[in-house]
Amino acid sequence: MSTLFFSFIRKVCLATALLAATNSQAGLIVESGVLIGATGIEIAGFGRYNVSFEDGSCAELFSGCDEITDFAFNDLDQVRAAGQALLEQIFIDSDLWLLDTDPTLTRGCEDDTKCIAFIPFKFLDNWVIGKNLINASMEVDDKHGYSTNLGIDQSIAVRSNTTFAVFTKIVQVPAPPSVLLFSSALIFLVSLKRKQSC
User: Fold this and answer.
1) What is the mean pLDDT of the chain?
2) What's the whole-model pTM score?
């Protein structure tokens, strides 16, 4: 019986380690061979975010695009960090996807030379201001582009090389403390069982 008990504890510890490893990496969301978003992107200094790549207008995609709270980021430093995270964690080549070499694999981008992810961060009257992140087919051309403005009702669907990067912050679920509590309880039970056996 104690062998089964220890086997169970080993399995719980392994599952906990796998869960922690899974939660630490960004995951791609691909539909019909096209990247439509990603989960668990770590943005240095600002936490973890999900992102979706969307066509449409700012007003359609960002709750009217008329309040600063409509955007995940509100200053240039945050937007630069978000763009850098996309370049380092999402727009990369792997054994499965050539997301850096082939910009057409990202939703909203049909241009095979570059895909511009537009990240809005403020608005002024009827204009939204955002930063362009350029994912080019040549890695040396990947870069943070210029800031630009766009009418809040202006759709980017007609642009063959541009997509909105819509970020949402991941609310941290207090899973690690509960796992720690569960593990502590298991260790206590094991030590209790050993004392009773002696």
Assistant:
1) 84
2) 0.75
Q: Are 95 and 54 in contact (CB under 8 A)?
A: no
| Cα angle: 22, vertex 27, 29; to 5 degrees | 145
Rounded CA separation 120/164 (Å): 8
C-alpha torsion 186→191→193→196, nearest 10: -160
Question: Which residues are within 8 A (CB) of 90 and not within 5 positions of it... i.e. 6 or more apart?
Answer: 26, 28, 35, 38, 41, 51, 99
Reported as a pLDDT band with limits 50, 70 and 90, residue 119 is very high
Give pLDDT, residue 24: 47
Give Cα 71 to chain centroid, integer Å: 15
Q: Are 116 and 133 contacting, i.e. CB atoms less than 8 angstroms apart?
A: yes
Distance CA 85, CA 167 (A): 12
* Coil/strand/helix, residue 18: helix
pLDDT at residue 17 in the model: 42
Helix, strand, coil percent values for the chain (each to nearest 5): 35, 35, 30
The distance of Cα 20 from the centroid of its chain, to the nearest Å, equals 17
